């Protein structure tokens, strides 16, 4: 049984990396003393103590009757090979393991009757080989190291293994271990679990031997701080949802787990990738809480489903690049356009959009992130191009590819298409003389009407003031019948 740290004064003083070595009511007191105080154990080998005692970095081991051996900085191989009391070792504790690898095969000839093994040390990163058969070994503790990988068969030959403690290391992912023994308790807490990897097997019934699995926590950037089992459960549900006939050939991933406002649950944010899948229309089904949809390089012609299909209600980022979309006018004044975050329409067949509609939506939408519009056949119509240019200049930080957006007009001389950057196009480039004149007339009329409106309101204000001060109506009113 594991001893609670709070009830053991020795364990309470251990460094965090060593506290996980508290097993069967035995704290690794020798390792703690090696770090915190001089060690003068009965029977200790000469030169064993703290680093503050000027000792060399050579391995040093001591034997404590009846059967325990503690080694620092490696194993004094000659002591074990010489026979004597070290051959009685049943419990071997290796403190401050000095090498990046640990080869358990070496132990078979040194301590063949070992029953318990503990290894700690921040230098250790991997096992050089799988454990060979040890007929009596029933407890293995490798903890407080930088161990980052173990094979599924690393402990398979230990047919009497009962406890495998791998807490406090740097494991990012494991597959279910293979064991010969009937029941093994496995402890995994305190590792750097990368929950972007697949460990859904932890949810299965046979994983009950992983005793502390409810306490495992994700450490990767995407799921950091989230329980591993919670992340895996959402991944399992999304994997099953992705088998729907509408999206069976797409891939689905939980991109993030957002903590609810009350802090009691999580909400998944799901990404679906249907790019290069031959879709002629947006799929009619998406998993719940889908927030990102990649559906580039298909044969889509419209975006109607964004406004009519409830499965798209939570979609915030949609990548529609390299399709056959000719218009997005249907999105005008829709809830979706008022709430989107990323809309990518590069490489489609758009030649015009309702500029005012998109601009109003972007101004109303506080969460808008990026809009991509390049590589479309935009027409350099005189009015549209100027409006489009104003829009791009005003929202250049949001239209991420605004500098790459071009429009074309037909050259009167040779009938060929001529492309110009929208941001730098001028009326002289694209407007014909007649359009120039019409535009000039409209501009003049606009100025005249604006001036008249200002004049009328000014006169109205003056007459009101005059009436309030002198009580006389305007002269024009007095002459009217």
From TrEMBL:
Keywords: Cell membrane, Disulfide bond, Ion channel, Ion transport, Membrane, Signal, Transmembrane, Transmembrane helix, Transport. It is a single-pass membrane protein. Signal peptide: none annotated. InterPro entries: KCNMA1_auxiliary, Leu-rich_rpt, LRR_dom_sf, SRCR. Gene3D superfamilies: Ribonuclease Inhibitor (3.80.10.10). The chain crosses the membrane at residues 440-462. One of its GO terms (cellular component) is plasma membrane. Residues 164-275 form the SRCR domain. This is SRCR domain-containing protein. Its main location: membrane. It comes from Anopheles dirus. It is found in: Cell membrane. PROSITE patterns: LRR, SRCR_2. GO terms for biological process: monoatomic ion transmembrane transport.
């Amino acid at each position: 049984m594991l001893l609670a740290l709070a009830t053991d004064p020795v364990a309470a003083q251990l460094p965090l990396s060593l506290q996980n070595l508290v097993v069967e009511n035995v704290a690794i007191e020798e390792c703690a003393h090696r770090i915190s105080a001089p060690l003068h154990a009965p029977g200790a080998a000469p030169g064993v103590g703290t680093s503050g005692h000027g000792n060399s970095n050579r391995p040093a081991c001591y034997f404590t009757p009846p059967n325990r051996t503690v080694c620092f900085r490696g194993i004094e191989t000659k002591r074990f090979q010489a026979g004597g009391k070290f051959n009685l070792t049943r419990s071997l504790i290796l403190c401050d393991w000095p090498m990046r690898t640990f080869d358990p095969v070496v132990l078979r000839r040194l301590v063949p009757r070992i029953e318990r093994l503990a290894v700690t040390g921040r230098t250790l990163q991997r096992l050089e080989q799988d454990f060979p058969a040890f007929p009596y070994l029933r407890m293995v503790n490798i903890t407080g190291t930088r161990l980052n990988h173990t094979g599924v068969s690393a402990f398979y030959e230990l047919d009497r293994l009962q406890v495998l403690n791998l807490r406090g290391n740097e494991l990012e992912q494991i597959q279910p271990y293979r064991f010969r023994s009937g029941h093994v308790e496995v402890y995994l807490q305190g590792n750097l679990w990368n929950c972007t990897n697949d460990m859904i097997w932890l949810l299965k019934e046979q994983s009950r031997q992983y005793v502390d699995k409810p306490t495992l926590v994700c450490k990767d950037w995407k799921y950091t701080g989230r329980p591993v089992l919670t992340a895996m459960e959402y991944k399992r549900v999304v994997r099953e949802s992705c088998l729907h006939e509408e999206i069976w050939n797409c891939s689905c991933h939980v991109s993030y787990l957002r903590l609810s406002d009350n802090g009691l649950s999580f909400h998944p944010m799901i990404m679906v990738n249907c790019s290069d899948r031959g879709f002629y229309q947006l799929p009619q089904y998406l998993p719940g809480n889908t927030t990102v949809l990649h559906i580039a390089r298909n044969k889509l012609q419209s975006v109607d489903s964004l406004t009519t299909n409830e499965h798209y209600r939570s979609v915030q980022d949609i990548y529609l690049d390299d399709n056959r979309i000719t218009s997005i006018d249907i999105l005008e004044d829709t809830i979706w356009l008022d709430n989107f975050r990323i809309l990518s329409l590069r490489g489609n067949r758009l030649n015009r959009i309702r500029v005012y509609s998109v601009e109003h939506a972007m101004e109303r939408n506080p969460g808008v992130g990026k809009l991509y519009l390049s590589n479309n056949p935009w027409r350099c119509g005189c009015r549209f191009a100027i409006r489009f240019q104003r829009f791009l200049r005003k929202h250049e930080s949001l239209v991420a590819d605004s500098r790459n957006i071009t429009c074309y007009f037909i050259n009167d001389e040779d009938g060929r298409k001529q492309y110009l950057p929208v941001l730098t196009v001028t009326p002289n480039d694209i407007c014909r003389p007649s359009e120039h004149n019409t535009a000039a007339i409209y501009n003049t009329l606009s100025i005249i009407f604006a001036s008249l409106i200002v004049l009328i309101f000014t006169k109205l204000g003056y007459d009101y003031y005059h009436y309030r001060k002198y009580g006389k109506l305007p002269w024009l009113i007095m002459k009217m019948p």
